[in-house]
Input
Amino acid sequence: MFISEEDIKDPVDFEDLKGELSDALWNLTDDLDDETLQKINDLKEDIQEKYSNTAVEEKLDDIKMSYYEKLKRSFEKDMDVDPGRILGLTDGIFGMVMTLLVFGIALPEIVISSSADFASFLQSITPTIGITLVSFILVSSFWLYHHEFMKITNLNIPYLWLSIFYLASISFIPFSTSVVGNYSQFFLANVVLGINILLTIIFFLLMFRYASNRGFLENKPSESERKYIYNTFYIIMGLTILINLLDFNISNNFIYLYFLVPVISTLRDINFKMDS
Output
């Protein structure tokens, strides 16, 4: 006898079916030898084990599951991908971004023939060097955060795309840095960098929250550790907004307040470890 999913309408019906089958087998035992009886008993046990109440309930759950739920389950299913590959990609992109930041400092297009010309050139690129150092420190801080908190043992499609968007926001930092370096006199130039930093922070928090909730992280963070990480990035987000407001209302030199990011991170890390 073959029982398909269409035959399983309700657990009560299935119980009736098992009862009828059991009665039918019992009526046949009068005229059967011991070997055949043993085979029937083995078959009966196999049927009971295969189509137990738990198995029936699981089948019914699968049948009743909506298309959206099936799609969501498939979408969130763990991928058979080595997490080390995405970590390697992340390190490679961070290294490339740091290199591009330095390459963004352009050499003079005119021939320098005297010390006065060279001094004038150094003075002209001083703001560019300054903003490049700011961005380099920020990128280094983001790499440290990723290296410390995002050691994963598994991943799925949503986490993979969150990581890609995070890396995309990191990859745009050389561009936004060049915009500020060349057009620092315009408020919108500083806003471009500010939005870039905010998006980087947001995608990191989304990535960390998702990986933590799904159990992807190698070091399972406690509630206090999660709170410490969230609050640290909230402070950096607040600092980014404050810097843009000060740039607009007072002076664009306030962009150098980004140098406080590693200071804030270090002090909070020390304080957290002391409290722990």
Observations:
- The chain has a mean pLDDT of 78.
- The two ends are 63 Å apart (CA to CA).
- The first helix runs from residue 11 to 28.
- The chain is about 75% helix and 0% strand.
